Amino acid sequence: MASNEKTLTVVALGGNAILKPGQEGTAKQQIENVNETTKQLAKMVLSGEYKIVVSHGNGPQVGNLMLQNELAKEEVPSHPLDVCGAESQGFIGYMLSQSLDNVFNQNGRGDIPVSTVLTQTLIDGDDPAFDDPSKPVGPFYTEEAAEELQEEKGYNMIEDAGRGYRRVVPSPEPEAIVEKEPIRQLLAAHTVVIAAGGGGVPVVREGDRLVGREAVIDKDLETEQLAEDVGAEVLVILTDVENVYLNYNQPDQEALGRITVDEASDYLEEGHFARGSMKPKVKAGIEFVESGGKKAVITSLNKVLEALEGNTGTTITK
Amino acid sequence: MASNEKTLTVVALGGNAILKPGQEGTAKQQIENVNETTKQLAKMVLSGEYKIVVSHGNGPQVGNLMLQNELAKEEVPSHPLDVCGAESQGFIGYMLSQSLDNVFNQNGRGDIPVSTVLTQTLIDGDDPAFDDPSKPVGPFYTEEAAEELQEEKGYNMIEDAGRGYRRVVPSPEPEAIVEKEPIRQLLAAHTVVIAAGGGGVPVVREGDRLVGREAVIDKDLETEQLAEDVGAEVLVILTDVENVYLNYNQPDQEALGRITVDEASDYLEEGHFARGSMKPKVKAGIEFVESGGKKAVITSLNKVLEALEGNTGTTITK
After folding, report:
1. Closest Cα in chain B to A27
2. Taking a C-beta distance cutoff of 8 angstroms, is the pair A292, A227 a contact?
3. How many A/B residue pairs have CB atoms within 8 Å?
4. Contact with chain A for residue B90, Cβ under 8 A
5. What is the pLDDT of residues A27-69, one digit of tens each?
6. Which of B64, B161, B245, B255 has its Cβ near the most Cβ atoms within 10 Å?
7. Which chain B residues have a beta carbon less than 8 Å from that of A211?
8. ipTM of the complex as predicted
9. A300 touches chain B (CB under 8 A)
10. pLDDT: is B153 or A230 the higher one?
11. Cα–Cα distance between B107 and A14 in angstroms, integer?
12. Is the whole-model pTM more than 0.90?
């Protein structure tokens, strides 16, 4: 297949691709996880059928950075959330870049360039999410410490499931990827791109300037925006399960295979998909196909090629 | 001038471009400094004469990250130096990207793309620097704590000027920029690139894999390597002073203007330039011109255009 016929595909990694539940989060653990992840991603590229952009979450990594900032605050000025997000993009991008370089090299394709692009995401400063901060970030606090932070720094704090108090921040919708042009340039030159990590660093337009905001953009919706902005044909959202399910974890659970946008929208409205879990993935898939994308695939990492061939996973099409 | 005639120029920022001596190091301070810095850098691009890659140091930022890691180590697994370096590239790249976006936009050139590329630098695992770790990094420790780190983690610790004990790491020579191909692709498409921050993340080749190492590559030598690898015509190294001087800070101090590589080499051998300060800058300039670069310019940030026109600063040519 001629290289200019490769299918431009944006792939969102699930959280487990980098850090697994229960792991402490050493760099060594994360690098080992990433090495397994990139073996699967590389298959897409090595098949010769796809050129890819990879996005990823950053919840645990940013949580750890925020906790480090908190514990060291008497001696080191604490960074705001946008800066911690940028730092986590550096960390995770480094692991993914190096690991992809390695797997390509091990397959005799050390010539395939890989690049992590620090990504900012434009959001609307008037997004209604700013009136309703609801996304918990960072460490748990005692009630007393939470009240102090609320007074001193104006943080919004909530009690989280009896485990203590946490800061909540707005989760606005992505409007555009600031770095879409460089990402497009790299893809046109057949570089594998890592971008939009952790939903991108949220920035608002204030007059003629971009300014960072303390917020978290949903990783799946962000990846959808990226896919639109680079003109991708296919959006792949990876998660822990092989399919999207109706009545998930119920006796009458049903795996979804190939469904239309309309079917997906109906299921979404019927409340089949959990908030903060499958719901944003299905929503992202619908938005992508409605905006002109060819198909959105939701599946697990190790089934990605099979799912792209239509043999498993959930595929949303027009 | 046709855009394909622009002079490809690699610019190394000085430390003061991001954090000034005596500043505490809040994100706000650093962003304000960066906003002044990018006004000068943008002049080069807005003149229509240059396309640029910008590199930067990361000493204070990595130092703060290492101190945060140290102070939080009971609760958050500490990251090795290569990971802290990658995090600092994310942080500083974010500030520089956003600030350049803003200054271009304020000048009606919001169409100029800007991209920070996470950069790894290949070093030789047998570099003699590994037998002689000499670059101090991170926080100061008491003698007792230093001995503990030496035993527990095998760190090399030295006493630093009566201010306490510090870890020292190797400072090997850069051999190649891993991301040179994507950086070239972006430059070919007229994107302003931020790369090789903090000397790049040092990686060695182990069999068919790249692996990170705890080391620090000199920022100026790294920038020279970057300039070679992208085929730059001009290397600019920015610092606090307008020129390179003979007998610096002596009564017979003499500013150097246009000098040849041979003259520069003689002055270097005569010991005119301070280790860790002007010496690596002059060395980088010599290496660049000897490797085929047209000229290397050493000057201060606010004189950069004048110096490129040959009206101030120190210029090294064949």
Report:
1. B79
2. no
3. 183
4. yes
5. 999 999 999 999 999 999 999 999 999 999 999 999 999 999 9
6. B64
7. 98
8. 0.96
9. no
10. A230
11. 40
12. yes
